[in-house]
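Hello,

I think I submitted the zinc ion job twice by accident. Can you confirm which output corresponds to this input? Input:
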Amino acid sequence: MDIRRMAIPTPFGEGHVNVYLLPRRPVTLIDTGIPGPRSLQSIQRGLAEAGLELADVEQVVLTHIHGDHAGGLSAILAEHDLPVYVHEFARPWMEGGDEEAARMEAFQETFTQRCGAPRMQRRGGMRPPPAARVRYVRDGDRLEAGGRVWEVVHVPGHSRVDICLWDRETGEAVVGDHLLPEISSNAFVEPPLPDETERPRPLILYRASMARTRALPWTTLYPGHGTPFANHRALVDRRLEEHDERCEQILGVLEGGATTVWEVSRALFPWLEGPQVFLGLSEVQGHLDLLEERGQVRVEPGDVWRYRPARA
Ligand SMILES: [Zn+2]
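Support: Only one job matched these inputs. Its output is below.
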């Protein structure tokens, strides 16, 4: 077996995150689990089952830098120094230190305010790992891992830095959180890159990435959560339909008199509390971006942005 899935327990909703071990040379881990010693212990058990130990691992690839995928990297590097492959848009976070952390916090605060939401507890961003040997990759790069050559496919949406690894020979693809079989991935609102002025529109980016990967001749997909699956085209179609349904739902709430991202979010997800509120705001903002692009809502910018339905 030259792709081994290790389901690592997490305290989050999905219950686990997948780390993939490619046991042939160069021996590769794709993703790393959550911060702390537990994920590392699970990874070490998985390595032992393959007759390997941590010292045999030659490189790590991060599909993206969310805490459940990149969080375990620090514990790994503390034991064993390795080259780490990650998309080049992760550079500000990997190298930016406190200044970049402050920039991201300031963005979140402004965004929350524009949504009309009360000031919230900060989400407490993850600190970047002390990786000395980071290799930044971009779309179309080739990467040798586990006895094969993989092509990097950049799929911004769930986050700006999401990548998939595609083996053109077998059609297999390791897809991180770009496509998940059992749950729909959020497209998170993120700050612009340091050289950009506008925040990216995550759901619009995500849909474009899905349209692109839908067209690729992929066979088996290895997701960041859940079990490997096939027939990704049907899954993409379902996710795109879900976006349309959510848009209709949001239009209904706006027609009922809500105008701000916060009001819509409260109507849709009244159970969200604390730092989780941001997930709701992000979800609603993403769909409002799409509705705006489709000419179905108008936005009045200001300290608080107000959205009104354009139909009727
Ligand atoms: Zn993620």
